[in-house]
Amino acid sequence: MAYAHHNQRPVFVAPNYHFIDPRRLNSSIFFVPPPVNYINPDFLPVVTPPGYIVNHSLLIRMDEERSLSLLKFIESEGLVPSPEEELKRIHVIGKLKQIVLAWIKKVAWQRRFPKQQIAATCATILTYGSYGLGVHGSESDIDALCVAPCFATIAEDFFIVLRNMLASMPEVSEIHCVKDAKVPLMRFKFDGILVDLPYAQLKVVSVPENVDILNPFFLRNIDETSWKSLSGVRANKRILQLVPNLENFQSMLRCVKLWAKRRGVYGTLFGFLGGVHLAILAAFVCQMHPNTSLNTLISSFFKTFASWPWPTPVILQDGMVPAAIDATETRSLMPIRLPSSPHEYCHSNITRSTFFKIRSELLRGHSITRDLSRPKFDWSGVFEPFPYAKKYTRFLKICLSASDRDELGDWVGWVKSRFRFLLVKLEEVQGLCDPNPTEYFDADSAEPNVVFYWGLQPGKRRLSYLEEVEDDFLKSINNGYQGPIGRIELSIVEASDLPENMEFDKGNGKGTKACWKLADYNKNRTPVFSQHLPNYFVGYVATNGDPQYPSAGD
Hints:
Layout: E1 4-5, H1 56-76, H2 83-110, H3 115-120, E2 124-128, H4 129-133, E3 142-148, H5 154-167, E4 172-178, E5 185-190, E6 193-201, H6 216-219, H7 224-242, H8 246-262, H9 275-288, H10 294-306, E7 345-346, H11 352-369, H12 388-391, E8 394-401, H13 405-416, H14 419-430, E9 433-435, E10 449-456, H15 466-478, E11 487-494, E12 525-529, E13 537-542, E14 551-552
Parallel strand pairs: 3-6
Antiparallel strand pairs: 1-7, 2-3, 4-5, 5-6, 8-10, 8-11, 9-10, 12-13, 13-14
Helix pairs in contact: 2-5, 7-9, 8-9, 9-10, 10-11, 14-15
């Protein structure tokens, strides 16, 4: 999910990426690698020993073969959905649009609008994230934004009226209302597909189905929550407009996301890169090399960002001149500008530890892919799962448990949203830490549980102060959480004591979306009546002491 923070120091990037050799830039702006012999219109180096004559046609053929083998690898990994799966997602989006249209007309009727206005009133669904960019896989969820007119409120109309309409449908299950997040949303399954549905309210009386969300007219005077909700949609749309070759971009982004997940550098809650970060980085490389193969794009990705002079921001060529900000402003270790505004940057939880891990993995990727002349190249090495058990001798074990699975899902989601606090605290007391984003479970525990294993820097003293770290973290996660509090236990585990049946280094762990509820929907339910239509019953809410944003009930 993308939302922007302001006051980030931007840097203007040269306007023509197509013909820029990064090695010719001033060394104070860009790292200059040692000179090598190379041939390639996009300045990718080909290392050649003395006296060796480069066969240009052979290199072109090898480049084509490596691109073809990578496309086959993508397909074999299940990164491209089948036609049946694609049709199912299209059906889900179509049904959601119908539901939202019926919902907004119901809300307009509750406001006692004239019949002509009710008939003309519209709301819509806009997709973003991996689905919006066309890089979703067979198991991907759908990020869909509900965009509605000014009279539809988030508290009553979205979280109660629309929530109840969805709950009444047989295709919909497992609805959660996530109201305490920076971008409030509903999360549910529709025909078995997980859907994230945030909400944005525009200052218009009707939202057309094909609303141009980049048009400043629709963005005037909107509230902060709506602005954050729209941020991801606007970034997606702008990226699709700016990439020179959409098919190459999509194939490249699928590969980059798989690499990030396999190498343990994907997940904003853990301080790593998120989907929007990788999309912008991939688009940047596509702009630099608009007419090259997939193999060259992947090689260029690692080469470019392994030597990128962070914290110089990555800025897409979009025709906008960045706003000048104080050069001392450093809000992020890896600033990446959203391509929809000159002063908005991707939200980031990156810390010293995760920055080090990301840079290390970029350098590794560059080392593997840099030599275009290497025969019998195997892409599986690039995507090999990160060997945590071989890399670290000690781990911080984080065990989260609850009395039932529903409470566990809410508890885990909430704790994960506070992981940055724990990571920074660990950096203060013991040095670098590698937060493995993969979720495991303890089969020996009687309670439903989720376990994380974070690699600890070797050579550091043992965490005799672990109890203090745990106490501080508990204070952080207990502040603001209104659901049933689960259990959390921190402990130090030696690599030799890791469970053998865990498949720790095979990259098979499943991640879950952060999700929590603000109250128990089945207790203390209170009927709610419309504020605009006397005696009209809206639905039930679970009383949680917050009259402005009550939790939606059944």
